[in-house]
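User: Hi! Is it possible to get a structure for several chains at once, not just one? Here's what I have:
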Amino acid sequence: MTNHKTVLITGASSGFGLLTSVTLAKCGWRVLATMRDLDRRTKLETAALDAGVQERIEFHALDVTNAEQIAALADLVAKRGEPLHALINNAGFAVPGFAEDVTDAELRDQFDTNFFGAVAVTRAILPLMRRQGFGHVVMVSSISGRVGFPGVSSYASSKFALEGWTETLRYEMKAFGIYAVLVEPGSFATDIWTRNAKMTAALKNPSAANAARVARWRSRIDQSAKDRADPQTVADVIARVVENPRPNLRYAVGRDARMALRLRGILPASMFEGVIIKSSGVD
Ligand SMILES: NC(=O)c1ccc[n+]([C@@H]2O[C@H](COP(=O)([O-])OP(=O)(O)OC[C@H]3O[C@@H](n4cnc5c(N)ncnc54)[C@H](OP(=O)(O)O)[C@@H]3O)[C@@H](O)[C@H]2O)c1
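Assistant: Yes, the chains can be modeled jointly so their relative placement is included. Here is the combined structure:
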């Protein structure tokens, strides 16, 4: 099947980015799969080969914090002389740690990728989408972009910022046929809380003020790891979003994400706070 549509995906070396690349290639899309380290392409190459879609996937180097790489890639995409139907800003990571302990440098590092990286890639691609008169810009946000949870203030604040920016972008660009969309997954089994979690330094200090609470919080996170959902669900939602000519602004994905939003809608605020604190194990 081929539909001659092209998508650019950031952070395609693992997790949602990898699965979305293969899923869209299987639907006939040409995929510009970008990753900051091309040496990590093997997993996607193998998945593409297994699915028989390797010819539809191109690999490009892109660290979303690298302004020169972003400009060069946007230039390359424009010079192809073909439309770009969708951009999926997926690259991201987390800095677990209590708000009190995370340093300015760690917080800025978090924002550089999750917020400024997604914004910079989008702004580099928007002129092309404006000229062609259509395009989908999908931000892989998080339920943590709607609800704050203990232990993830850096991550949540970067995603809250992304939510505000994207909601505004949606209103500004709709007149040009460009749809900005937020996909908000709950907890899914990818590398984000393992290989890609950059713990705040204070989490490693057993005599820190929050040490005992951190230990309780970590054990709760470890216990819940087995309940993390299949990330293919998120790839499928993203694929449906880019195939939809008029997608909504927000898509919460996963039972936990939808439940958190529902509870916040129906519970009194003080009761909702209690639920969040208790479920995190920090007291
Ligand atoms: N899994 C979840 O439960 C969950 C829930 C809500 C939202 N999300 C969001 O989903 C997105 C994808 O994460 P994932 O869960 O699929 O985790 P993942 O498997 O760790 O994938 C993250 C991807 O982002 C890439 N990346 C990190 N920093 C980058 C940078 N500066 N430039 C380019 N690429 C970079 C990683 O590249 P390397 O391979 O080089 O490290 C990796 O390919 C993230 O935005 C995350 O916040 C995840």
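The pocket of NAP is lined by residues 10-11, 13-17, 35-37, 40, 63-65, 90-93, 113, 117, 140, 142, 185, 187-188, 190-192, 196 (CB under 6 Å). Residues 1 and 27 are 7 Å apart (CA to CA).

User: Great, thank you!
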